[in-house]
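Hey, resending since the last one bounced:
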Amino acid sequence: MAQKLSDRIIQKLETPESGNVIVYDSAVPMFGVRITAKGVKSFILNYRFKQKERRITIGRFPTWSTAKARDEAQRLRREIDLGNDPLAERQAASGRSLVRELASRYLEEHAVGKTEASRTDEVAMLDKLVLPVIGKMAIEDVSFNDISRLHRTITKDTPIRANRVVALLSKMFSLSVQWGYRKDNPCIGVKKNPEEKRERYLTTDEMERLHKALADHRNQNMANVVRILLLTGARRGEVLNATWDQVDLKNGVWTKPSSHTKQRKLHRVPLSDAAVVLLKEIEKAAGNSIFVFPGSAPDQPIKNIKRFWQSVCKMANLHDLRIHDLRHTYASLLVSAGHSLPIIGALLGHSQAQTTARYAHLYDDPLRAATNSIAGQFKN
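The structure tokens again:
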């Protein structure tokens, strides 16, 4: 809830563990203070200009007092009411926009359509790995060597993360060309680190141990999350954010909205009989929440099952098993049952055939069994 900010209140604001948070002022609309994970506090003003959301930084606290920053915010709002764009004027006056400004515009105009998890991850990459290194550079000054050097530095600790950072920057600088900041993308040509697709599936014995651990666990609400993951092959975010209006238990269909899927497309998928039975049991015990798996507050879903998953894996003596591996296990069982790749892709919500093709090698055993079944009909 917004409150009238003061120097005393801002001094007491807590630093977030990652990314940044904004606390808004109740006196001036969309004026507030942004606190980063490093403890930097800056006054900002959000506004809308020509149907676009904009954000301008007024100055850092305590160099700027709350009273002076509020006065400046009011002045800026008067300028906006007169048809002026203060952020554009500032950029034009300097003649050089910075990478941190490109990052802000990217998050405000492009990343808004992404899932909350994806956006949070990108904010973390920018705040922790990108902006401390090149954030103060002019957009047009960033070179291939700057990006390559950043990639090499991150690679020393997290090679895969280094690839993700370059992919994020490549999208940002591609947009910077469209937005007129520069004429080329400095990320093109940066050699990424080799990545091997993870292929971890539950064995029959591991599956039995997992089911027993789920049955024995005291938190059956969380256990049901894992059971639905196993029965549907859905992504974790799709299950955690599922609402009852998405699930048609009478016809056994789950319609996932585009805002919940990785491909940003509506995904309508049939539910197995076992999944329907389990969901009906969950519904009977549910309260008034719209969410299939409500969190501590009924108007919010469960946010994270990481600790629960760790405890279950410990109980079941499962090693090197990630939650996403349940999705791979679901796909592998479909392959073993002889279902085609297009069918599997449709159930998993893949938009491209090559995504499902990673499971093609699992057909070796059923195909070998099929060819062996006719071998006896031929005589040497």
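The domain at 7-94 is CATH 3.30.160.390 (Double Stranded RNA Binding Domain).

Sorry for the duplicate.
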